[in-house]
Please model this.
Amino acid sequence: MAGKPKLHYARGRGKMESIRWLLAAAGVEFEEQFLEKKEDLEKLRSDGWLLFQQVPMVEMDGMKMVQTRAILSYIAGKYNLYGKDLKERALIDMYVEGTTDLMGLIMSLLFQPPEEKAKQRALIIERATTRYFPVYEKVLKDHRQDFLVGNKLSWADIHLLEAILMTEEVKPDILSKFPLLQAFKTRVSNIPTIKKFLQPGSQRKPPPDDEFLVQVKKIFSF
Ligand code: GSN
Model:
């Protein structure tokens, strides 16, 4: 039997966090090898383990997988979280790309100079409430099912819950005008594997802070 997937990344959310979420939701145990300094990244590179010299990298099923999106689709496909046919897959991809765009706005907050942060927060709130959340609220309203696609938990639901929680870290009442997303959040948060991941002490990482920024700047060349 293959061992546990091993995740190589810095000790924080970044591009690896959605991979942690998806594995955890699928009920897959995983190990983490944290990059603590630039030399750790250089070692992976000189060992020839990083196809494009970048992380996230996940050792899984005999592969050394890179490229976040490729890793996520592999896990979603393998654990039956990627729809039943190409059309469901396309919907899941569209919904995931939407939440990825919203998460990108939130992640970029960390790198903004202090005087730009308020403007970026306002943009996140505006985009979440006028562009992204209305789409998912409407999907749930139109089909009246528990999950976004195919009446069954998929990668799209897991990614949306991650995005909702990230957006609530920017504005805690961000869902106030989205009753179906509030119910969705409660429902998906209570799926046993996800509930466990949301408990303290899990492999979920805390919101990034300035200390994390200093750490990643030492490892990656931003
Ligand atoms: O999505 C992906 O996995 C790739 N398209 C990008 C991965 C990437 O940018 N990795 C960064 C660290 S994560 N932060 O943004 C990285 O390895 N940077 C070092 C470098 O030399 O590019």
